[in-house]
Amino acid sequence: MDQNFAKEVATLCVRHYTEVLPKKGKPQANKEWTLLAAIVQVNENDLKVVAMATGTKCIGRSKMSKEGDIINDSHAEVLARRAFLRYLYEQLQAARSGNQESIFTSPDQDRLCSLKNSIKFHFFTSQTPCGDASIFPKESPAGVELSKDPSSDDCEAGAGVKMVQDESLRGHRGACKRAGDSFDVDASSLQLSSDSSSECLHSNKKLKCDKSVPIQVSVTEPCVQQLCNDTDSLVSEHGDNPSLLLDRSSSRCCSTSPACTSVRDDETDCKTAPNQLPEQTDSSSGYCRDIHRTGAKCMPEGPQDLLLSGADYHRVGLLRLKPGRGDPTLSMSCSDKMAKWNVVGWQGALLSHFLARPLHLTSVIVGKCPYNQEAIQRALMGRLQQVSNLPEHYTINVPHIVSTQVLFPDSKGAVQSSNAAGHSNQGKVVPAGAAIIWANVKQGTLEVSVNGKRQGVTSKNIHKKEARCSVCKAEMFESFKDLMQSCPESGYPQTLRRNDLHTYYDCKMAATPYQQALARFHVVFNTWVKKPSDYSLFS
């Protein structure tokens, strides 16, 4: 993807936030920070924001509602996707009413609509998604060169993090030289499809990888592919497509190996490790090996982080839950959710009833923040390579992933830098408690939520419909029922021609192809948290 286009999308999103959205719900200046996510629609040369959200919070299990009237996960990426669903519902209503201006075609003989060929969607996030995509090495200080520790069996990249190096990156034909059970990679031959200023690979370093490093994609299905297959076969198969090369190879070399360890300080409401450098140092330079750390927690039923010093703190490729303050959440990390959406689509189960095929995004564009191309490729796509036997029209989506230098002014880093430059004595900068949800729809375009409910609702009315946000499950189900009622029963898609569809759960489970794809995803990611069904039995 063209870097200028990615910058244009990112700039459009930040400008929409600063110039179009009102002040309501935004962080307090110099005191609070938040995350921004948005979806941009492109129709030929026309770009417009169709969904946007901010947010950093989740509610714990004890606060969840069986009525579907509370938003469990208020991270910006998740809320932006929910706002996107509102936009899709309105566009589907238009298409099924014969409106040619809709982004969807009119229903076909199976009563299904399709996205018009000219329409593409691009996802922007101001920060690397929490969870696995946030696990990567910190860069070493300028001039510090790290060499292989003879006592280690793992690779060292960037600031000494132990990581299996992806051998099939663009421009790397034939660069994998076998030497017994290990191979040397000249990092000068590696080219990643992102802004070079954000890379953690440095041009004059040698990266040595040991074939004996255990690699695992899921608890039940270990990856048994060789770490260093012939690179030429990948290049000849995929040509010059860096996304596919990274995608295929990351499942080989950077899945859930205990040796693939790295992390960052998440800009979510997460508890992080102490800020001091770990005691582990490189034997040749004396420089401490360190990593960015995430607050997202490993699944209780699955492999756990090592929690050792430096590069041995985390394992990568694992499913993770967003943390709660004394009240555990049931919300998967944004890395995990976005990986799932790359399989089942961003439209969800309910909307899939009306669509001929799942909706996928063309790109993921990241604003200026701590970033690692290999980590985000691994988290969003590389972990998916063992997902197989998907139903018709379902495939593993491979979006372009691009880093930009476009700074979101209300990000944690931007607020801290601004305070430091102005010598502001505001104390600790904290995550904003409110979340903004905006959708490009005719009614109710913007709302602000706190703790999963509309901001400003009194405790007296907290359980009334007026307290609901438009993107909570209950309101989304209302939109679904409105869409059904807008057409005669003879116009229903085949999956909805049943008499036993009464609850939210019933209608989701009736989306057979979607549920089949989700089941195939769960075969590989078998520790994925499953909320009790009684949280979906509302009607």
TrEMBL record:
InterPro entries recorded for this chain? A_deamin
Q: What is this protein called?
A: tRNA-specific adenosine deaminase 1
Q: Which UniProt keywords apply?
A: Hydrolase, Metal-binding, tRNA processing, Zinc
- The EC designation for this entry is 3.5.4.34
So which cofactors does this thing need?
A: 1D-myo-inositol hexakisphosphate
Single GO biological process annotation from the record: tRNA processing
* Family to which this protein belongs: Belongs to the ADAT1 family.
PANTHER family xrefs: TRNA-SPECIFIC ADENOSINE DEAMINASE 1 (PTHR46516)
User: Does the keyword section mention Acetylation?
Assistant: no
What function is annotated for this protein? Specifically deaminates adenosine-37 to inosine in tRNA-Ala.
Question: Per the record, what are the reactions this protein catalyses?
Answer: adenosine(37) in tRNA(Ala) + H2O + H(+) = inosine(37) in tRNA(Ala) + NH4(+)
Every copy of the A to I editase domain together lies at: 51-538
Among the GO molecular function terms of this UniProt record, one is: RNA binding
Give the organism, scientific name: Acanthaster planci
Please indicate which superkingdom the organism of origin belongs to.
Eukaryota
